[in-house]
Amino acid sequence: MRALCCSVLVLPLLGSACTNAHSPAPAEADRTEAPSAPAVERTHETMGTLLRVTVSTAETAAAEQACREVFAEFDRLDALLSVWKPDSEVLRLNAAAGSHPVPVSAETREVLRIARQVSEWTGGAFDVTFGALSGLWKFDAQDKDGTVPDPARVKAALALVDYRALTIDDGAGTAFLARAGMRVHLGGIGKGYAVDRAVAILKSHGLRDFIIQAGGDLYVGGMKDGRPWRLGIRDPRGPVERSFAKVELTDGTFSTSGDYERFFLKDGRRYHHIIDLTTGEPARLSRSVTLVTNKAVIADALAKGVFILGPVRGLALVERIPDVEAVIVGAGNEVVVSSGLKGRVTMLARPTDAP
Q: From CA 73, how far away is CA 234, in angstroms rounded?
């Protein structure tokens, strides 16, 4: 899987360190500050991103073992869910589209089911079968060429995007795509699922105060130095080290999708990797969406759907789903905050007003 770069800043908890429009945030956007208590921090390249686990504990041996198990679990899930790993279950499912059901693991079926549920919630704004569009738009550093794909090719690919044509059969242990050419792609949800598995592993070792960060997906457990973690939301048009708001959080997940990580500019217009499946072009209603909830797998996928829906419909959806909150920066640079985050979000500065 390929991932967004992190859009989260873990801010220091000292009151005097609050950022504003002119004072710098931490030096790096993906920087995680270790707790001042004894900590174990380990990193691992997996799922196309850098996974960082930081645990505050005196039980060093338990933390070390838990980190090894977390890394092994990420790699195991990547081998099942990736479209970049040879012979992954997802690749086999795609290869058999329109032909026959394919045996897949319980984990793959669970991720597919959650993805289909988010597809339902968003009315298809997030659609787990968007893989048919892969390769038409090029935003990754190694193949970005600044070209807009042929509209006819985009239209043909859109005809193959339909989450309702995905069948999951737990009794038979299979999944099936109804039409040839359809492709599941779990890049918008797989990391979140793996983060949730990592949380369970750390807690099974008796570890409570920790942070797990995989690209733009982040989970904080317990406390940082006896207080909730303070997480900064990146300014979509500002320097990478600047955050425009902060949220205090404990035992929860924090996921941001934005139009500023994988993009190119052409004729004064920004083209980015979050595609509106009604048009086949980059979504135009949002600059960034940050979701706060208790499951990383939900936040990972739903953030993209809310981004596409935009501030009005996206916020309305968030308000209908229990235990999900959002901070949305709209295309006009307006900031909207869901009702459950009122009083929990501190605005540090107005987001930079730039195209």
A: 29
In this structure, the number of other CB atoms found within 10 A of the CB of residue 350 comes to 13
Quote the CA–CA distance of 55 and 120 in Å, as a whole number.
36
* Full domain range(s) for residue 270: 1-141+149-349
31-45 residue pLDDT tens: 344 445 679 999 999
Q: Please say whether the beta carbons of 289 and 326 come within 8 A.
A: yes
The continuous run of DSSP H or E covering 10 comes out as: strand 8-10
In which residue are the tokens 């279950």 written?
Answer: 89
Q: In whole angstroms, what is the distance from residue 284 CA to residue 276 CA?
A: 8
Residues 130, 141 contacting (CB under 8 angstroms): no
**Residue 354 covered by a domain:** no
Rounded distance, CA 329 to CA 336, Å? 7
pLDDT tens for each residue of 185-235: 998 899 999 999 999 999 999 999 999 999 889 999 999 989 999 999 999
Domain CATH code at residue 127: 3.10.520.10
Number of domains the chain contains: 1
**pTM above 0.85?**
yes
In a domain, 355, yes or no: no
